[in-house]
Amino acid sequence: MHEPEKERCKDHGEAASKATVKNSKSALEKPAEFVEALAKGLAIIESFDVSSPEMTLSEVARKVGLSPAAARRSLITLKTLGYVGQNNKSFHLRPKIMTLGSAFYYSARIDEVLQPFLRDLVAKFGDASSVGTLDGKDVIYIAHSSVQRARRAAAVVGARYPAYATSLARVLLAGLPAAELDAYFDDLVIEPLTSKTITDPVALRAEIEAVRAAHYSTTVDQLDYGITALAVPIRAVDGRTIAALNTSGYSGMIDADYLINERLSQLRTVASSIAQTLTRYPALASVIGQ
Question: What is the pTM (predicted TM-score) of this model?
């Protein structure tokens, strides 16, 4: 997603979801003004995913780590505001929740600034292309284009996946200062999303160091079977890696060497053009670079 070049099967989606939930529980430094009730409500919203589109009160409470009473208060509030619906004993997200993501998408001018580059890449190579950034131990996709729209239900802006399994995130991890990379590996839970997923932290770190030296990353069937991807960094004027750009395709038709030989040069050129364009949109550059 993204990286995926085909719709992810349910068991792989569940594994990715579990890994994301576990890896998102890193300790937060909470200022005095921190509002616990708001944090609980947002955690509940984030708990709904492809493997859990509907949940009972007890399932929500268990997944988020809240008491049933606290989960109920948040769910009733979200239901009253129109973000959550209820069918008998099960709760689900309602379409209004999309306004939260679209607020960022349009205020950050993603469609205006990033999408044209991705559409051009897809027009040239076919397959799919995405831009992503790190959020804790996950990668979030902030822009995406694909010729396989009907088959890419999971390839949507705002989707998040465990960073260790994607080419985008490995590029982003390779761009982190040493202390921040160490922090990423602290308490990292690695779930095998496929039989090829790198699950050894030592091997993963070696892979990230190789990416740092090469300035690009390739993955084959790491996030899901059938996904081969190539990613490069998008750098700010000071040299920091603030986002990553990828191109991906179906493993049955292309391999990593093909992507390197046929697309790496163009991908780097487009990443440089995106970086140049972001200098004219400092607010967007700041948002995605944080």
Answer: 0.74
